[in-house]
Amino acid sequence: MAGKPMTKTKKRGIASLGTLVVVAAVYVLMRVFIASGSLSAYVIGMINLCCINVIAAVSLNMVTGLMGQLVLGHAGFMLVGAYATSIFAKESGMALGASLPIGLVLAGVLAAVTGLLIGIPALRLRGDYLAIITLGFGKIIEVLARYFKGITNGAKGYSGFPTFNVNKQPDGLFSYVFLVAAFVIFFSYTFGTSRHGRAVLAIREDEIAAENSGINTTYYKLLTFTLSAFFAGVAGGFLAQYVSIIDPSKYDFNFSIEILMMVVLGGMGSITGSVISASVLTLLPELLRGFAQYRMLIYSVVLIIVMLFRPKGLLGRAEIQVIKPFEWLLRKFGKKPAASGKGGEGA
Amino acid sequence: MSRKIELQVEDLSIFFGGLVAVDGVSFHIKKGQIVGLIGPNGAGKTTIFNLLTGVYAPTRGDIYLEEKSLLKYKTYQRCQMGLSRTFQNIRLFKDLSVIDNVKTAMTQQMHYSMLSGVFRGPGYRKEEREISRRAHELLGLMGLDEFAHDYARNLPYGQQRKLEIARALASGPKVLLLDEPAAGMNPTETAELMETVKMLRDRFDISVLLIEHDMNFVMDICEYIFVLDYGRIIARGEPAEIQGDERVIEAYLGGDALDDEAEDA
Amino acid sequence: MYFVTQLLNGLGIGAIYALVALGYNMVYGIVKLINFAHGDIIMVGCFVIVSVLGWGMPAWFAAICAVVFCALVGMLIERVAYQRLLDQGSPRISLLITAIGVSLLLQNLYQLIYGSSERTISRLFPLPDIIIGGVQVSNTLLNIVVSLAMMLVLRMLVDRTKIGKAMRATSEDPGAAMLMGINTKSVILFTFAAGSALAAVGSVLYANTYMFARPYMGSMLGLKAFIAAVFGGIGSIPGAMLGGYILGVAEGLNNAYGNSILTDAVVFGLLIVILLLKPAGLLGRHEKEKV
């Protein structure tokens, strides 16, 4: 009887190891490509931006996808993180290689604390209040950023903090942002399949039944919301590095909606869905520059249509495993047919 | 006959605006007892469950589980203390697997930290293995193990009811509250359910309080029955006594009991 | 005197918040949806006025056109965007996201049609001067009178008419209402139409008071109106009115004595404080979810 789950665990172990190898290989290859100068600064920039948006989308997916709570102020947490990282990098006087990691952690912590402060009143209430409160919070942060000119330089934008020099160190930002993106994906997947994650999923499914199953829903909501804010702060820190200036008006409601789009389109609850649609939605506007003025219009129509006909998003809650294509290749070239079990367990 | 009193309810009352939904209800359930709560639609049966589990706060009265008042505890705490329930209109975690439904209710029996869960530490592995074994065992007991990795929403109706009972058991209750467990079941399924409930009571040493409209079910399985009408207990006793009670027959057949059908929903 | 001026300014905009808040309240009461697109209906109304005046029509005709057109847009939105989700009993989050989609769609559509710059509107209703303490208050008074009248009309509609009774029934328990022979779908449609018509009345007052239209004008206005609805108590008609006026006055006073850059922060801060202290709002009743 114990045999069945045992093999399952073992197989999953191999799959995770395989995934790790693939991710590491991609990382090394990319750094080699960048170092050899075969990618233009523009392309490297796009890859960095994809990774940043992946961090933002995957972190929002934790609250909106896994927990089923709508957050409309994700950009606000990113703005907090952006200032934290950049101000620290400028004021500490350390070399960027040292100040960036510390600054990013600082960004996460500050955003998480902000999240906690927002979450305590908002998450006590059921229903749609979280959406409104986070929307309001996003607005407040933006307004405050413009108001405290002494610290943020207001609407003119905060700049002059150290960033990586693209010519001297083309893979500088990439070496951080890719690893962090991979970590956030890993974190949100393993979190989602732990006891804490199951409680969070239960809240999405039926809050009342979750409470009647002994789950302290307020605690888990606050935990997830805070974690999500933490990673959003980190994403914001990276974004400031990428753009090299912080204009508070860029971190507005529309930006929050763009990140929400990435989560919703990919499939609410699907981490790989968030990753794919974050990448696609980052690259698409670049490819369709001529349509820039129609972008939000198209977004809104797509949003409505997806909600009407595929309310759980394009991928639904399914995950795509990085290892799967390799398994397929393995099968194709006639080693052994790996049996795939029935899906369902985990996220 | 001097079994320990497990759950005790004293003068429980709740008013919604001017409406008296539950009025001065007192009863107790002894360890290992299966007790029925019956009455016409709108009598306040589900409201009593909601009061017991803390969905509503009573206007008056008190609830004791093993002599400890529950009033200051929240729903999830009451569940952890040993009071778990099923719902009249099944409330499963539909998009989770059958086994995850059960494991979710065991969340509080595990103690590994969030970081141990994220990085798959030894605590995670040990406890998850143990929980997985227990969940499979529980599902096996309910005849659901073959569906362990299916989505809960794909189960047939009768199995969904069973899964809800399994989930309620998973949190390790002392008193199990079943809200119309036999609703929508055919006679064979109902008979099977009867055996299951008795088996669970014996195996887990729990008390059961159940709301049910199927009189054969109630009369067969319950040691003791309370009859509720307009929020008051109008009769109590063993099945044989209840069957002959005139007030009960009156409550069910006479009067305007059918008029307020929607209220109990 | 400066205080009085700002107070009156606050009441003037508060009357408009109140009208929009009524619509939020009605829709929320019936389908439990925060209709994010509701604020944008004001924008639609203002642009109807811009267009109709542009054709050389009189102001009263433009006002009527705005009300009718907005009611139709409200119904169209319900039919196209929400009905399918409501029928399927989709999760609230899907409905909310759809509502956000509709709001963005309206904003961007109007930006494409009318451009992103501000359109000025000439004063719709030139009123005789009423001066209190050296301040011209005729428009403020008009706003207040109209909003109170609308509240009374809505109150009568909900309390005295058959459709009002059906609305109350649907909001209480849609399933039971349907069993009692109420066509809940038409009730929902009517609610959207009525709510949008009220917002259109708000847009007429707005156009008359502030004399401009902009594609994004509705989003902040709508949010503030929603906050007013929450403040007063979701589900309560006088609550929406009260919330609207309080919010307007708070904003006016902040502009006068605080810092106007911070107005939006103050308003949302206020919302968070209310939700902390009194989640059901000033005049609302707290509803428990059914189990």
Can you describe what's shown?
The complex is a heterotrimer of chains A (347), B (265) and C (291). With 347 residues, chain A is mostly helical. Chain A is built from 14 helices and 2 strands; from the N terminus they run ααααααβααααβαααα. Chain A has a two-stranded antiparallel sheet. Chain A starts with a helix and ends in a 15-residue tail after the last helix. In chain B, α7 (187-204) links the parallel β7 and β8. Chain B has a 6-stranded mixed sheet, sandwiched between helices. The model of chain B is unreliable at 256-265 (pLDDT under 50). Chain B has 10 helices and 10 strands. Chain C has helices at 2-31, 38-54, 59-88, 92-114, 138-160, 162-172, 174-179, 184-210, 217-232, 237-257, 263-277, and strands spanning 119-120, 131-132, 135-136, 212-213. A two-stranded antiparallel ribbon of chain C has the order 1-4. A two-stranded antiparallel sheet of chain C has the order 2-3. In chain C, α2 runs antiparallel to α3 and α9 packs parallel to α11. Chain C is globular and about 60 Å long. Chains in contact: A-B, A-C, B-C. Chains A and C meet through α4, α5, α11 and α13 of A and α3, α4, α9 and α11 of C.
